[in-house]
Design a protein that fits this description.
This protein has 289 residues and is α/β, with parallel strands linked by helices. It has 13 helices and seven strands. The chain folds into two domains: 61 residues; 215 residues, Rossmann fold (3-Layer(aba) Sandwich), CATH 3.40.50. It is globular and about 55 Å long.
């Protein structure tokens, strides 16, 4: 997805949010100077696509803070928070008339974990008000057909807390479709609160399916990924893209014969408008080839 005026304004706003969250002692005047410094860096970039700007922004924040992974403690808290909901979610799945759709919706609800968004984060409210009718865009029937006719499925993960719910989805999928190959992609390095190898080990995702690393960015920058990722990306029959950052990365790239689905929560007005839904809506959308 190309950089949009709303996106650029949002990126600069994320600088303020990051420092208020992670360095509350930093004064507003200091944040303004940091914003100016980062704006200059972004303005000098010769790129059109949104993922490069998100990557540059959070690399700059990490450098200024003097930490390689400034969101590390926050990611651990998110994982622990998500784990507390597992018993409730298992009960919802067990009682559901459509457990496959239920685990998909649960995985999308997990996308609520996000600190790079102006959208209000209220995971508990989303879970307590859980309903299979909450999908603002619902391509589930197409998804079922494509899933049945596929052998190799790549799931591109997003943030760390969300990946706890992704694990529940993977447990169901691998048990229900034991003859299919599932691969889960994580980030190759820190990028805001997205999942890396450390968090994947804490969640024990390695026990469920094969794990591969993508790029160290809040999204997928294909030319920055290794050969293994690129080969699996090209050879997968079905790709599930989690979250807004991955959507921004994959919305307009070549996907060959793969069926690509976006699973996300619309957390800004720009993305909501693109899907024709209200901000906060849950989305399961098949990308047109």
């Amino acid at each position: 997805m190309d950089l949009h005026p709303q996106c650029l304004a949002c990126l600069i706003g994320q600088v303020e949010k990051a420092f208020h969250l992670l360095r509350p002692s930093v004064s507003n005047s200091e944040i303004v100077e940091i914003q100016k410094k980062i704006m200059i860096k972004l303005a000098q970039m010769n790129q059109k696509k949104m993922p490069y700007y998100g990557q540059a922004l959070y690399q700059s924040i990490a450098e200024i803070m003097g930490e390689n992974d400034p969101y590390r403690k926050m990611k651990q808290k998110n994982i622990q928070k998500a784990l507390k909901f597992i018993p409730t979610l298992r009960e919802i799945i067990n009682k559901s008339p459509n457990p496959l759709l239920t685990v998909i919706v649960i995985a999308i609800i997990g996308n609520t974990f996000d600190f790079g968004t102006p959208h209000k984060i209220d995971l508990e409210e989303d879970i307590m008000n859980f309903s299979l009718d909450n999908l603002g865009v619902n391509d589930f029937d197409n998804f079922v057909k494509d899933l049945k006719n596929t052998n190799k499925i790549l799931i591109i993960g997003d943030n760390s807390g969300e990946s706890v719910f992704d694990r529940m989805m993977l447990e169901y999928l691998t048990e229900t479709f034991p003859n299919k190959q599932f691969v889960y992609s994580i980030r190759s390095g820190p990028a805001i609160n997205d999942i890396t190898k450390k968090e994947a080990e804490e969640i024990e995702l390695f026990k469920i399916c094969k794990i591969i690393e993508g790029s160290a960015s809040p999204g997928v920058i294909l030319e920055q990924t290794n050969q293994e990722f690129q080969e699996i990306f090209k050879s997968s029959d079905l790709i599930l893209s989690k979250g807004q950052g991955n959507y921004e990365s994959l919305d307009d790239i070549e996907i060959g014969n793969s069926n690509l689905y976006f699973l996300l929560k619309a957390k800004c007005s720009f993305v909501a408008e693109r899907f024709g839904v209200e901000v906060g809506s849950l989305i399961l959308k098949k990308r047109e080839k």
